[in-house]
TrEMBL record:
It comes from the Bacteria. Pfam families: PhoD, PhoD_N. InterPro entries: Metallo-depent_PP-like (IPR029052), PhoD-like_MPP (IPR018946), PhoD-like_sf (IPR038607), PhoD_N (IPR032093), Phospholipid_Metab_Enz (IPR052900), TAT_signal (IPR006311). This is Alkaline phosphatase D family protein. Residues 1-29 form the signal peptide. PROSITE patterns: TAT (PS51318). Residues 40-131 form the Phospholipase D N-terminal domain.
Amino acid sequence: MKLDRRAALGLIGSGAALPAATLPGMALAAAPAAPATFRHGVASGDPTPRGAILWTRVTPADAAHATAVPVRWHVAASAQGKPLESGSAEARPARDFTVKVEPTKLKAGTDYWYWFELADGTRSPVGRFRTLPVGKADDLVLAVATCQLFVSGFYNAYDHMAKLDRLDAVVHLGDYIYEYGPDQYGASIGAKIGRTLEPAHEIVTLADYRARHAWYKSDPNLQAAHARAAFICVWDDHETANDSWTDGAENHQPASEGDWAARKAAALQAYFEWLPIRDPQPGKPWAAINRGFTFGDLATLMMVETRLLARSEQVSIASAAPTAESIGAVLARVNRPDREMLGEPQREWLEQGLAASVKAGVPWQVIGNQVVMARVNGPDLDKAFGADTAKAMLAAQPEAFRAQIEEALAGYRLGLPYNLDAWDGYPAARERLYASFRRAGSEPLVLAGDSHAFWANNLADAKGQPVAVEFGTSAISSPSVGDSMPQLPLGQLLAQASPEVAFCDQRAKGYILLTLTPDRAEADYVGMSTVFTREYEAKSLARFTLDARAKARKLARKDTAGA
């Protein structure tokens, strides 16, 4: 029996280049025959000191028969200001009528506003972004987001982000869309709160992935967040299919869903069309979206790719009754030295970037990474509550799932890590990465998504030596493992069982607001009171600080009203 550890425990608790701009002064003479709209708002991403990628999507009245739609874009110093830089482009059918352009004449470290317009005078909403600073930078404010299953909740966290007085950029760590159909993951929640899904089936083709991106982008709160600040994005697994790796995915069945390479190519094409991300460099794989951003003399942000470039297949559990022998065999496969996550070229690129940042005297190196890096041990209910109480808790679970829950707990007692799809499934690759940190002279801040939980982790290598600090953000809306059994303090149990885990909340939804100064880093864990209605309250669940000058940096928790 193949056992999904996260689900089981939850029961107890082509067109890759930017469109070429038309020549200066070229008239927008070919207005569309029927009215077109900017139904999906605007977005910016991948900022530079001189600009950013600016994105929109034109919705023709009849996309099936529409030709390229001319578009004009403008950037100004205020929402109603006179354009400082303008240009022309086309919304083409070959790119699903999406548009990506890049201004290059702006000032560093400055807020700008932008919009698009059609030949008939139709204007898009106005968006805002901030260029990267050059030289001295006093502070930096980043929102860290991930995991936004449409049907499982409203995007209240994005509404809260959009209203922040200060927000320099949003770091999105993946699971921007989900591939499932409306009768799969999260469907019962969507039925209750009226969050439907299109297309009404699991997405496999290019048309499917495009339509799913369009559906997600129809959300007003997501549009508002995109209009508020530039997004710096990487994908995780659900932009293609659940638990993806280089040559496949847990949720891809070749017999019924065709060739994985074709599905992956379709998913990535739609991603590059619909996200405000810089398109692939000529001659490099589409999956090579690892890239760096320099925020003056304050911080270097390195975004890594952990799914499609080099990741080895996850080790799966196939045992109806875990034993010491069977779990030992699993761990032997997990610990194989040839198992990869980043791959050597990407790891070397990361090491060089970290080393250059340290050499330049930059106090903060930040890594945008998809999955939890810390060593996390599974909970032992017998140890936490006593055998009798644990037995009673299990007896209260639905009979159909009780055996799976017991198997998961038995595996944890025998030494199985909590999540083999995270870095715990690739310990040799993690040690190679930690060696890179050490050679680079960096103690980075590692960001993590994917888990639908908040984490604050003190990372250590296999010898127990501190190497980095990890801030893991919970989901914007996706279900958390702890949702299934609120009375079980799963986050506390994981922290108690795992020396590297300083804090874990397995129920809250929200995002991390990360503020960096030359002297310290502060991570504010912002939780939403609910994602099941559009009315919500936001509060600080926990706040952690780091001293930039300290060696072997370690998290210090600050008291908050909501902690």
